[in-house]
Amino acid sequence: MVLDVGMDPPIPTILQVPGEVSFYMQSGLMKDTIKVDTSELTLKSLKESACNFIDKQYPDHGLNRLTERLMLFKHDYNSQNMLLPVNAASDVTDGALIEIIVSGNNPSDSVQIRPHYLGVHSYKAPTFCDFCGEMLFGLVRQGLKCEGCGLNYHKRCAYKIPNNCTHGRRRRSSTYLVPNSPTNESAIHRTTSSGPTLTDEMRIARKAMT
Q1: Which of 20, 93, 152, 195 is the most buried (most CB within 10 A)?
Q2: For residue 86, is pLDDT > 70?
Q3: Where are the coiled-coil regions (predicted)?
Q4: What's CA 153's distance to the chain center, in Å?
């Protein structure tokens, strides 16, 4: 048997794992390789990988609700914009470079849905609807009052009001003050002009003395 000690052992070749996609994620100067099974590649998993990347590269970022802040773009040097938004998991292919953009907008500043907790209410004083500004008519159970913020509404206006309850139980002046609308201003004018004023009474008294 003749042994050829001068030959090096063969170097094993790197085999591509079927069903796996390998790409790069980058944020600023930080870059890393990501490997994901194609069956698990979704927009949600991409966002999770991006969050893990940011947490790893910038452990002291201190950002809350990071998933809602991230935007993903794919580098495409054949495109005029060079950065194309990732709208589907199929946009990520082998060797792709995904740029992670962190939005400066605070997700907590977004509009929140806060429905009103309305209940039928009987009012003892003239009350006006906080939606349309018109008076709540009737002897009892004239309208709806929100248990969260204390605002008052017509039953017919209940389905129109926005979901913006403050839950502060703060009372508006609508129970005691007439809203500044043309209808109500004319009503005030009719009310004040229907009876004698203090000036009229003084004139009558002067005539009686003469």
Answers
A1: 152
A2: yes
A3: none
A4: 25
Side by side, the strands of the sheet bearing 30-37 are: 30-37, 20-27, 97-102, 70-75, 83-85
Instruction: Report the 3 state secondary structure along the chain.
Output: CCCCCCCCCCCCCCCCCCCEEEEEEEECCEEEEEEEEHHHCCHHHHHHHHHHHHHHHCCCCCCCCHHHHEEEEEECCCCCCCEEECCCHHHCCCCCEEEEEECCCCHHHCCCCECCCEEEECCCCCCECCCCCCECCCCCCCEEEECCCCCEECCCCCCCCCCECCCCCCCCHHHCCCCCCHHHHHHHHHHHHHCCCHHHHHHHHHHHHC
Give yes or no for a contact between 41 and 21, defined as CB atoms under 8 angstroms apart: yes
Q: Which domains does the chain have, with CATH numbers?
A: 20-107 (3.10.20.90), 111-181 (3.30.60.20)
Whether the model clears a pTM of 0.70, i.e. scores above it, the answer is: no
Neighbour-count burial for 107-144, b at 16+ CB within 10 Å, e otherwise: eeeeeeeeebebeebebeeebbbbbeeebbeeeeebbb
